[in-house]
Design brief:
Elements (H helix, E strand, L loop, with lengths): L5 E2 L1 H10 L5 E4 L3 H6 L6 E2 L5 H14 L1 H12 L3 H13 L5 E5 L5 H12 L3 E5 L2 H14 L3 E6 L6 H10 L7 E2 L1 H5 L17 H15 L5 E5 L4 E2 L2 E2 L2 H9 L2 E4 L3 H18 L4 H14 L1 H4 L2 H14 L4 H27 L3 E5 L1 H13 L8
Helix pairs in contact: 1-10, 3-4, 7-10, 12-16, 13-15, 15-16
Length: 373
């Protein structure tokens, strides 16, 4: 039997970070393992489904490895050819018609899959140490995150959209860290938005570590949006959160009417344009408002009345901006000012969107580094 070709996780990560990977990336773990923790770029084509893996695990504990392997072969026999075909087609669809196969620890499952793919006539490499090894490499960048500037500002000022514009512009910033995108949440009671479900904590951390690594290719200092410790159900890693609450800040300063217009556009008009029914948006807004009702005190019922009245008028954004402005002034702005006063971070610059963008592009252009090939 031909000796299995191996690839180490740092080598694969370097290609993922630089965007130069041409291998098909195949994760043969069971779907439940994939859902809990996956690596961006990989596709899940399991060698055992969840029920098969459960039964094989019992056999291993009770009777040992040989019995577990025998049972695995019996359980997968009816599906073996279709699974091999799936792996083969994935490899053949890659630019170089080669693949990297990963399981939990780089053991029997990925080795077996590589052998079957080779028998079908395709070339694969087995990821040494499997998911656990590449996960450990990624965690290094969350335990010791880089130096950052924090983009802060009142709710609705457009911090996230500025982050994404800077990332897409090809400016000297190269990579700003988009926490909300990695977390699948906009970071407030109203923040689920377009995201159907948040990733697992491990998936979030893996995505975040890759963002950090990509940014560090071109600059020693990154830009990150101001966030609380939790974003929906996701927790920002402790070391990175410590950076957020101590780093210098750039303050995006927009007036109340601009911020309410931004929110009305993002949370109401944009979903309506995509075909989301108005009643669905109303129900989501009611649930979000209910979740913070205890902190609104006596103002809560009046705000709920304003909101319901605006939804009765449908798409009239002006009416929606009225209750959004009230919510910002009575709740979110107070919370923001309390946080800012408590943290006492140094301010490097403060201005509206255009001036902040110009300042940031100039700041990071002086700190950019040539990207090595």
């Amino acid at each position: 039997m031909t000796k299995q070709m191996i690839i180490e996780s740092p080598t694969l990560l370097d290609r993922l970070v630089r965007g130069t990977n041409e291998w098909a990336l195949i994760d043969v773990r069971a779907p439940s393992e994939w859902d809990k923790a996956s690596i961006p770029g990989f596709v899940n084509l399991p060698i055992l489904n969840d029920s098969e893996r459960h039964l094989v695990g019992i056999a291993y504990k009770q009777h040992g490895q040989d019995a577990a392997i025998k049972l695995a072969l019996e359980l997968t026999a009816p599906h073996q050819q279709s699974r091999i075909e799936g792996w083969y087609q994935a490899v053949q669809s890659s630019p170089i018609k080669q693949g990297v196969v990963m399981c939990w620890r780089g053991g029997l499952r990925s080795r077996t899959a590589c052998q079957r793919i080779a028998e079908a006539g395709a070339v694969t490499l087995q990821l040494a140490g499997g998911y656990k090894a590449i996960r450990n490499e990624l965690l290094k960048h969350l335990v010791a995150p880089p130096s950052c500037l924090v983009l802060t500002g009142l709710t609705g000022s457009g911090k996230t959209s500025l982050i994404r514009q800077l990332n897409a512009s090809g400016s000297g910033i190269s990579r700003a860290i988009d926490l909300e995108l990695a977390a699948g949440h906009r970071g407030s009671a109203f923040g689920a938005g377009d995201f159907e479900v948040q990733p697992s904590q491990a998936r979030f951390e893996n995505n975040l570590a890759l963002q950090i690594m990509r940014g560090m290719l071109a600059t020693s200092e990154l830009l990150i949006e101001d966030e609380s410790r939790t974003i929906g159900n996701i927790s920002v890693p402790d070391a990175l959160y410590k950076v957020i609450v101590t780093a210098p800040v750039v303050v995006l300063d927009e007036p109340l009417h601009v911020r309410s217009a931004n929110i009305a556009q993002e949370y109401l008009q944009a979903p309506l344009d995509r075909g989301v029914p108005l009643e669905v948006l109303h129900e989501k807004a009611k649930q979000a408002l209910s979740s913070i009702s205890r902190r609104l005190d006596v103002f809560g019922p009046k705000l709920r009345e304003q909101m319901d009245d605006a939804f009765r008028y449908g798409r009239d954004l002006q009416r929606h901006q009225e209750w959004i402005e009230a919510l910002l002034a009575h709740y979110y702005d107070k919370s923001y000012h309390h946080s800012v006063n408590r943290l006492k971070r140094p301010t490097l610059f403060q201005g509206d969107r255009l001036s902040c963008q110009a300042w940031l592009e100039d700041y990071f252009s002086k700190r950019s580094m040539p990207v090595a090939g």
